[in-house]
Amino acid sequence: MEPLLRMESIIKAFSGVRVLHGVEFEVLPGEVMALVGENGAGKSTLMKIVAGVHQEWQGDLHFDGEQVRFPATRAAEEAGIAIIYQELNLVPGLTVAENMFLGREPTRFGGVIDYAAMNRMAREIMDSLHFDDPVTIPVSELRIGGQQLVEIGKALSLDARLLVMDEPTSALTGAEAEILFTVVRKLRSDGVSIVYISHRLDELYQIADRVTVMRDGRTVGVMNAEDISRRELISLMVGRDFEQFFVREGEPDEDVVFRVRNLTRVNEVPGRRALLDDISFEVRRGEQFGIAGLLGSGRTELLEALFGVAARDTRGRVELEGVELDLSNPRQAIEAGIALLTEDRKGNGLVLSMNVEQNLTLAALKELLHLCMISPGKERALAEEYVDRLSIDVADLGNPIESLSGGNQQKVLLAKWLATRPRVLLLDEPTRGVDVGAKHELYIYLSKLAEEGVSIIMTSSELPELLSICDRIMVLREGRVSALFDHEEATQEKILHAAAPAA
Amino acid sequence: MNGLDEQMTGTTSTARGLARRLGPFLGLIGILLAGVVLNGQTFLSLYNQLNVLGRVSIIALPAIGMTLVIISAGIDLSVGSLLSLSTVACAMLLMEREWTRATSITVPLFILFALMVGYFIGRGILIHKGHDRKRADIVGLIAGLLMAVAVGLWSSAQVAHGFSTIAVLLIIPILGLFLGAFNGVIIAKGRIQPFIVTLGMMSAAMGLAKFIAGRGGQIHPIYYQSAGYSAEGTVNIAPQSFDFLSSQVVIHFTLTRLRFGRHIYAIGGNEETARLSGVNVDRVKMMVYGICGSLSALAGVLYCASYSQGKPDAGATWELDAIAAVVIGGTSLMGGRGTVIGTMVGVLILGYLGNILNLQEVPSEVQDILKGVIIIGAVLLQEGTLLWWLRGIKRKRIS
Amino acid sequence: MNGLDEQMTGTTSTARGLARRLGPFLGLIGILLAGVVLNGQTFLSLYNQLNVLGRVSIIALPAIGMTLVIISAGIDLSVGSLLSLSTVACAMLLMEREWTRATSITVPLFILFALMVGYFIGRGILIHKGHDRKRADIVGLIAGLLMAVAVGLWSSAQVAHGFSTIAVLLIIPILGLFLGAFNGVIIAKGRIQPFIVTLGMMSAAMGLAKFIAGRGGQIHPIYYQSAGYSAEGTVNIAPQSFDFLSSQVVIHFTLTRLRFGRHIYAIGGNEETARLSGVNVDRVKMMVYGICGSLSALAGVLYCASYSQGKPDAGATWELDAIAAVVIGGTSLMGGRGTVIGTMVGVLILGYLGNILNLQEVPSEVQDILKGVIIIGAVLLQEGTLLWWLRGIKRKRIS
Amino acid sequence: AKSADEGTWVIGFSQVTVKEPWRVVFNENLRAKALEYGDAVDLIVLDADDRTENQVEHIQIFISRQVDAILISPKEASGCSRAIQEATEAGIPVIVLDRDTTWKGYAAFIGASNLVIGRAAGTYAVQQLGGAGSAEGKIYEICGALASTPAQERRDGFHEVVGQEPGVVILGGLDGDWKLDQGKAIAQDALQIHRDIDIIYAHNDPMAYGAYQAAREMGVADRIRFLGIDGLPEEGAVWVRNGILAATFLYSTPGEAGLEIAIDILEGRREITPGERITLPTATITAENVTEFLKQDDPRP
Lengths: 503, 399, 399, 301
Ligand SMILES: Nc1ncnc2c1ncn2[C@@H]1O[C@H](COP(=O)(O)OP(=O)(O)OP(=O)(O)O)[C@@H](O)[C@H]1O
Ligand SMILES: Nc1ncnc2c1ncn2[C@@H]1O[C@H](COP(=O)(O)OP(=O)(O)OP(=O)(O)O)[C@@H](O)[C@H]1O
Ligand SMILES: [Mg+2]
Ligand SMILES: [Mg+2]
What we know:
The complex is a heterotetramer, with one copy of chain A (503 residues), two copies of chain B (399 residues) and one copy of chain D (301 residues). With 503 residues, chain A is of the alpha/beta class. Chain A has two domains: 5-238, Rossmann fold, CATH 3.40.50; 242-337 and 459-503, P-loop containing nucleotide triphosphate hydrolases (Rossmann fold), CATH 3.40.50. Chain A is built from 17 helices and 24 strands. By secondary structure, chain B is mainly α. Chain B is 79% helix and 1% strand. Chain B has a two-stranded antiparallel sheet with strand order 1-2. Chain B starts with a helix and ends with a helix. In chain D, the strands form two sheets. A six-stranded parallel beta sheet of chain D has the order 2-1-3-4-5-11, with helices on both faces. A six-stranded mixed beta sheet of chain D has the order 7-6-8-9-10-12, with helices on both faces. In chain D, 60% of the residues are buried. Classes of the chains: A alpha/beta (503), B mainly alpha (399), D alpha/beta (301). Chains B and C meet through helix 1, helix 7, helix 8, helix 11 and helix 13 of B and helix 1, helix 7, helix 8, helix 11 and helix 13 of C. The complex binds adenosine-5'-triphosphate (2 copies) and magnesium ion (2 copies). One adenosine-5'-triphosphate (ATP) binds next to helix 1 and helix 14 of chain A.
């Protein structure tokens, strides 16, 4: 069968640095082609070439039989290619519907937008995604999860023949992911081809027909999803084989270091339900404490509250090693030995105008002072230490942070917080966009931290992850604690059941 | 940014959105009440009201244009100079009966404009009719040339006996359109911050104004008695009010209903996304700055009409007034948010403020101080920050 | 933004970073060459060079302050007015031998400042020594009061026989510090856009200047013969150059080596991230605007020294020059990037530009036009856009 | 030094700004005068764009170009003093025009006194209101940019005279920044609070004209008399002729006299007496004598 998309010996360089060395890639009509690879393998770059974002590259791109080279994203769109970028691309001020149809608004007599039609179409699509907020609210009122759904809806609204999804589920929980999969399957049955990029291998087995594996800017294998075992796949990605399933060894101590009592966070908007409602729990020294819940369950809000964000809306008692903390801002939290890795990398994680090193040391500058001055030596040393501890893939610490691949950016952020030597480490979606290999290292690293006595509280939308590494898992439902499981008793089913909204 | 607002001010975009929407109106009501309380009848008198309207109707136009620019996350410092430039050009066109620098700069632009319009319309129609582009191009070109010739003849006919009111109303805004669009081109194609580009234009246009006004390199304002566009007495604010009301309505409609308008918001909100979504960012920017420029030029004509003079420094520092009005009107300088109605309210607030202070015979230096305080106060109020502080205090007391 | 630039201009951030870093210097070299070619000896003469330096050394100070503000993604329109205000205050302090409005506004601030300094130092030492806060507070308070009293006595002693140069150099910048810091407070706590806050301050400070200068409600500039701070002849640029060189060094050091400086960049780059990384955003902002204010005030003192006069409109429109210098110096108005050295280069470019045009006896209207063109050109050049265009054209020709 | 071979005097002139019409006429007249000398005089006119720094630089440029004499119309009294001193010490005669400087060592100062003009305006106003001693009425004053010296002197002179009339009150005094539109706005508001104003005195003609426009729109133009200052052939004079202004007071441009004296000094016809002051007379322009002040070749109606 003639492939819908065929890319041959694609070469792409950024300011002289080659990141794609002759990639081969093809997608058949009506198939779901998974594209996997380590962070920085070049997946997103390859897809940006398909979508016409990058114009300067060498190689052949055949779409629907004929050789093409898209001068702009628009051209690719018109050719029938839709893409969901790895980073969210929405206009905060515009409504959900306006965002979905931006640049393609249905208009009457030249230029006048037909809002009725637009909202109707938007509603239909978002319903298929079980998105229950109105499509007429600005996306700025959605959290990252909701926004991810809008991105997906936007891509669907193009009803393209080739749909590229670059880590669409990274902000979605299992439940929403399921919804997405049904949509994907339906599209496939309608003959739409889909390129599906994800670091969650189990997802691939659920929906992918074939898998293309990339490593270091090269294609290292194409095979049918059912023909390859998870283990083989991983070793193909990382170029060596290793223990695939991480098992957390080592027990946390008995003594409780972190105690939360009746934590409540009111919603700034009067009338809406409290974001957090009377939450109490305890974390022991060296424990890895997981927080599960559906999108909107308030995990992020909880971690924020523990970090002193929006303190004026928060009530309740927080104790660290027996001392009550009265956190009115993040600074005090950091001084108290708490660190928060936020879930929104671009929004409130990175400083894009700073280079890798500066991003990494931002929160720990105090340690680098020498006679009240930042000592470049110390700074460089600290950065290098963490770069190889977390094996961050960066050519030069002086490079702009944006030149790193998504996963490596995430690692830099983690390093940034580890550099503050926290006693309690709050992680919101720490493995978002991190490849299996890196994840594995991360797990090992986290448990090493735990061994050293650091208490870790993490949320993740990937249940298997929580299940494998957490000593205990607390489930949130609409801002309330709905269940608390020990490592042994916790199972996917129990958690999902506890998380599902009370009927 | 918005995320920041939410987390940090503790008011969600809806809440502060509300404050933003209501703030200006509250401010206006406050000012009006103050006016009534302080000056009672005098303030309310139709005469006084018309005066204020007449005054603000000029600054209103650049302010409206500025609203578009600011919503697109830009800024335009050149409106003041463009206004000055066009007062000079306008006055000369109306007064002189020979071929002057004013004519030799405006008329060619006018003709060029006619050419372009003719071309695009002609071409558009044919393409719409489904003819092939080549054909359309040729026909368009012919149409354009015809229009150009017509316009050329007409405007050179004007020169002989001084330009008519309609003529200036047509020709001057086009001068502004081109200069504004030039801003847009540099900003869009050169990817340079609007602030600095328009700062450059500010200086250049001012120089141009002096140059045009100057005879033999010397400069002086041109006064003319027959205030072409203005009737006698208070009536003369009518046409102005008409101008600015109509342009307000048009722009408001553009922003709320037109694709072009929404794209301005999109660019202001997230330019990269807009671009990736296939919005023709560069063209939109060009148009936005072009519109802003032409509105400023139109304001220049009104200025000429109501003060029967053209002066190279007529609009000095007006850009700041315009921006102040826009911001007081609740449009965010971060771009992506804002309304023209808000801007009108902002303009009125500033207008009434000056009026009331004058009626109170407040000395100028005190007026300056008060103005500063009130500008800041207005924004504080409307950002909902005050409310938020109060809330915080209240909450503290509870716990 | 950056990602956008990368994707759209095809020049990676590093490349354009280079362009940004080199651009200004290339510009400066270009200007210097132009000067030599056009005016040869006259231009190179020590005399002329000293004149230019003397001139720029005043505008340089607000420009340096503006650099901090702009790196923190803010803007300060009030520098010009603050400068004017302090020329007036300075002149009055130096001239008058009685208790004037100037004294009654500056002296109390001076005392308040002394109090705060004493308090924090005293307190800081004790806490550092490990005493408990309560104790530290009390001691600090006492220290503060002592300093306040001392300063109070000293400055009121000054009044009798007019203030000494040193006294002015101490007291005036503090006036600026407070007003600037006030900007910062509103911007930080009120979460209002710097543009509008400082616009308000611009108007208020101007009014205050007129008010102070005014005797019996009547306003006029103050002149004094003994230009306290300045020696005679061209030598008088020495102290100024000293002032601005030293402040440049200090600020450069602050930005590159101090935590405070790094925090400024962080805030400019992503305020929310900075806050979540434990940066005390509000305090940093207050300090940034405070510093900018005090540098502007210091510039006012220099102005007083070199023109031996204080005038409520001395610094009118200087804010734009300062901003232009900063941007030409390669600092991005988006915040998060920039250097003081660049700003100095920017200041010199503008200074030499004016000098050369004057030497060429170019009429001012043409100067305005040229200035506008050159500002835009400089930025185009340094944004690397020109290069990029050329590249684009080249490629087109190839394919 | 005089370039003997060509036999031309190089004269440098630093004009503070040309945005104001009066300055333009100033330059026009000066240039006209220079033409009268033909090749004997080479006049360099620089415009400081309203910046003291620029003027200082102009003088420094003149010094380094070794011009024969310097004319300067300074922005304000003090800013240029040191530069002027330098020039004088460099042996170049400096003639200060229009506004005096704090350093009095210059070759000569020539200018019309704003104080005198203010007084003249005052006298005229008083006489309009019934003559000295018996004058009664209300005068509304619109000031120029209050940060500038001329505005203050035009104000002081006026108050000095009118202040002696118990029957006359002076109202207003707001800052119209020399601008027509601001003058109009101020008048619009003032005319509402004070319905019985007899005279509106503005510190320049455009503001007076603006005030007239306001009054006309209110329909009270005919019972108010408008006084302006400057009397330029294309502004005030025209308005006086058209019966818009009751009177304007000539603020004569010192350019011609300045150049004349400079040449006399250079050709040794005149001794330098440092700090010499030459005050140009003002003139009261009214409907009677307006024609002499109009530009003869003025095409306008
Ligand atoms: N704009 C850019 N400038 C410079 N280098 C870049 C840029 N974008 C990507 N790269 C480099 O290209 C390589 C591939 O990046 P890419 O984002 O495609 O990896 P990826 O497979 O998507 O990784 P991840 O799974 O973490 O998203 C990385 O080494 C990255 O550093
Ligand atoms: N089904 C949904 N439809 C639309 N928006 C949703 C939905 N579920 C969640 N959201 C958005 O998510 C926001 C809350 O998500 P938030 O991130 O705060 O909670 P969370 O538990 O941290 O989820 P996550 O961290 O996975 O986003 C809601 O305010 C809403 O905007
Ligand atoms: Mg990627
Ligand atoms: Mg979350």
